Amino acid sequence: MKLNLNKTELKISAGLPKQFPGELIPQVAFAGRSNVGKSSLINSLIGRKSLARVSGSPGKTITVNFYKVDSALYLVDMPGYGYAKRTLEDKKRWSALTDGYFTNNKNIDLLKLTICLVDSRIGPTKDDVAMMEYLVAAEQPFIIVATKADKLNATEKRKIFEILEGIEVCSHADAVILYSSVNGLGREDLWSEITSHCGI
After folding, report:
1. Helix or strand holding residue 56 (H, E)
2. Which fold has domain 8-198?
3. Which residues contact 2 (CB under 8 A, 6 or more apart)?
4. Which end of the chain has the lower number of beta carbons within 10 A, N or C?
């Protein structure tokens, strides 16, 4: 089955776990710190410029956004973590919503893959590592996508792989992909992982 990416829509921006859609189609979650480039990556994956909103204020939006692709799967954009300026109340809302998706989600069995985004220029933060450790403990498959790779030279690209290889939890990833929303590097590889894990 070849997905028709033109048939992609934002189904719902859920601010509460009870708002998560109940359709029985596979889900792929995108997790990463604020300003790692999640929205830009989703836009480049779909081939749209502004389907996912690129916020000028990192960490501002605290919703789980469900993008329905060709009635075949959901791309699930999780709220970014690790934003220092977020208020305590907002941090509590973020935690409740994110925990709700992973631990209080009646359709968690539909989650086929989590894409852990890290900034290729700095490598995984402690929050990135904590997210991966959680996914390993929960036996949830994940891959690592190193964003903003167009800003790296060949030596720096090799270095990010070396950094990831040196972190034990990263060895549990099903794949590691260098990605650029600017020039499309890694786009085909990422779609291949998504469709393979979703059985499409």
Report:
1. none
2. Rossmann fold (3.40.50)
3. none
4. N
